[in-house]
UniProtKB/TrEMBL annotation:
NCBIfam families found in the cross-reference section: PRK05380.1 (NF003792), PyrG (TIGR00337)
GO molecular function annotations of the record: ATP binding; CTP synthase activity; identical protein binding
Main function: Catalyzes the ATP-dependent amination of UTP to CTP with either L-glutamine or ammonia as the source of nitrogen.
Pfam families: CTP_synth_N, GATase
Highest taxon, organism lineage: Eukaryota
Family: Belongs to the CTP synthase family.
Taxonomic lineage of the native organism: Eukaryota, Viridiplantae, Streptophyta, Embryophyta, Tracheophyta
Catalytic activity: UTP + L-glutamine + ATP + H2O = CTP + L-glutamate + ADP + phosphate + 2 H(+)
InterPro entries listed in its UniProt record: Class_I_gatase-like, CTP_synthase, CTP_synthase_N, GATASE, GATase1_CTP_Synthase, P-loop_NTPase
Protein name: CTP synthase
Domain CTP synthase N-terminal, first and last residues per copy: 2-272
Length: 566
């Protein structure tokens, strides 16, 4: 097994995840099989209980793992299916060590960070790197390991030490260290400054690791004298100083690496030149250029709770991008805080209220994504009502589906107190209930998580056609509330159709509104399985409806391209 470790310095948020993913893409383009591991030094066991404002979206895997959003980047870039074990946290490591200590596995020894914690980290990495993630048999050729945070953080120290020991044990031909750092430009001077990177590399070397490559983030391409200075003071050859400057879209990053011959240098470092093929990134080049050349855009109203941090909906944004490109449009997302649409906002913040409604009315389609808690729910209900009554294409995901049920019950069935048990447990009109198998005392890993099968109830529904007339679909879930099965009959008599159910037939998964151009709610999260060049079916349906891709020629074109029947 060959290991490529990616660390970061100076500041967080430099794009280590995209860099690590892009390195994987370039190596995969050389004919190698690649897997990925993300190390998060926080004490949480997983990302499941963290606020989106705290750490961005929680990405859900097929096996139900609630993980860091960077694993979403890995899956999208590398087209692999990862497991919960591909995300290592301090909480998981300490939990496993303490469980062994309680069982007496350490034979009465004093359990310490070194060697017990560091050994657990190494064992975890070596074990997970052997697990195939691309649907083929046998382990991958290369494992890309991203260490979260920045070098020098207290919580990262055991992982740095474990990586140092791993480097020593596997040998220099099997380990490559890439350090991502920032090259700022001070506004007054206008000079590219190398000192922050010098200090970051010095810190890393003091901990026993010397980077083989520097991946330098900057607004503009690095000057040659900047590279010479970095090489001199960071002990890295000029040829191994990679510049990842700002680009129009992140699909250019693998191309940037290729243009700098990063793949050749990395292959040489890990003694893989003889087994690798000539790099082939033609598909990525077409993808990046196609996006750059798009001129028309489609306005999408994203009505959510966490719009203050767009990373909270990262996979939704990517799924919209994939679908829009498939229809030859650029996505123009109008972020609307759901609470700004509420009547109370008209009194407290009239300008925000007016702007929110103007934005909603100017959009070609409406999307209400997932979320938890009652903040902004009234605004989401108003957005769903607007889309339903005005024939505006609508897609509700998880909470967004439940919102559409509540709105329909209130507006069409005239059940004024219709609500979810999450928002009003005492209401007599419970149309959304807490799932019987859920836990009300523990929050972590107690939801309905991971890939679950949805059976289509009728072949003539819009969603089934989008899924290539399939009888079922496997999508990823993350919820603890569901549509009350006792009110399903009443809702369907009034015109709402539940066209997708779970294997028991009692849990509602997909709803549609006949006669509407596109009004779909899904209990699952289709965004998690959307890929570049292979867009998620519900998102593709939303964008097709919003852009008028409904004629026969468009249907034939998209069918040939993606395998969908539309």
């Amino acid at each position: 097994m060959k290991y490529v470790s990616v660390t970061g310095g100076v500041v967080s948020g430099l794009g280590k995840g995209v860099t690590a993913s892009s390195i994987g893409v370039v190596l995969k383009a050389c004919g190698l099989r690649v897997t990925s591991i993300k190390i998060d030094p926080y004490l949480n066991t997983d990302a499941g209980t963290m606020s989106p404002f705290e750490h961005g979206e929680v990405f859900v895997l097929d096996d139900g793992g609630e993980v860091d959003l960077d694993l979403g980047n890995y899956e999208r870039f590398l087209d692999v299916t990862l497991t919960r074990d591909n995300n290592i946290t301090t909480g998981k490591i300490y939990q496993s060590v303490l469980e062994k200590e309680r069982k007496g596995d350490y034979l009465g020894k004093t359990v310490q960070v070194v060697p017990h914690i560091t050994d657990a980290i190494k064992d975890w990495i070596e074990s997970v790197s052997q697990t195939p993630v691309d649907g083929k048999e046998g382990p991958a050729d290369v494992c890309v390991i991203e260490l979260g945070g920045t070098v020098g953080d207290i919580e990262s120290m055991p992982f740095i030490e474990a990586l140092r020991q791993l480097y020593f044990s596997v040998g220099q031909d099997n380990f490559c260290l890439i350090h991502v750092s920032l090259i700022p430009v001070l506004g007054v001077v206008g000079e590219q400054k190398t000192k922050p990177t010098q200090h970051s590399v010095r810190e890393l070397r003091a901990l026993g690791l010397t980077p083989h490559f520097l991946a330098c983030r900057s607004a503009q391409p690095l000057l040659e004298n900047t590279k010479q200075k970095l090489s001199q003071f960071c002990h890295v050859p000029v040829a191994n100083i990679l510049n990842i400057h700002d680009v129009p879209n992140i699909w250019h990053i693998p191309l940037l690496l290729q243009n700098q011959n990063a793949h050749d240098a990395i292959l040489k470092q890990m003694d893989l030149v003889r087994v690798a093929k000539h790099v082939d990134l033609r598909e990525w080049t077409r993808r990046a250029e196609t996006f750059d050349n798009l001129t028309e855009s489609v306005r999408i109203a994203m009505v959510g709770k966490y719009v203050g941090l767009t990373d909270s909906y990262l996979s939704v944004v990517k799924a919209l991008l994939h679908a829009c490109i498939a229809c030859s449009f650029k996505p123009s997302i109008d972020w609307i805080a759901a609470s700004d649409l509420e009547d109370d906002s008209a009194q407290s913040t009239p300008e925000a209220y007016a702007t929110a409604w103007k934005t909603l009315r100017g959009a070609a389609c409406v999307l209400v994504p997932g979320g938890f808690g009652d903040r902004g729910v009234k605004g989401m209900i108003l957005a769903a009502k607007y889309a339903r009554e005005n024939n505006v294409p609508y897609l509700g995901i998880c909470l967004g589906m439940q919102i559409s049920v509540i709105e329909f019950a209130r507006s069409v069935l005239h059940l004024e107190k219709a609500n979810s048990e999450e928002f009003d447990p005492q209401t007599p009109g419970l149309v959304v209930i807490f799932m019987p198998e859920g836990s009300k005392t523990h929050m972590g890993s107690t939801m309905r998580l991971g890939s679950r099968r949805t059976l289509f109830q009728t072949p003539d529904c819009t969603t089934s056609k989008l899924y290539n007339n399939s009888k079922y679909v496997d999508e990823r879930h993350r919820h603890r509330y569901e549509v009350n099965p006792e009110v399903v009959g009443t809702l369907e008599e009034a015109g709402l159709r539940f066209v997708g159910r779970d294997e028991s037939g009692k849990r509602m998964e997909i709803l549609e509104l006949p006669g509407h151009p596109f009004y779909v709610g899904v209990q699952f999260h289709p965004e998690y399985k959307s890929r570049p060049g292979r867009p998620s079916a519900p998102f593709l349906g939303l964008i097709m409806a919003a852009t008028g891709h409904t004629n026969k020629s468009d249907s034939i074109l998209l069918t040939r391209k993606f395998g969908f029947v539309v």
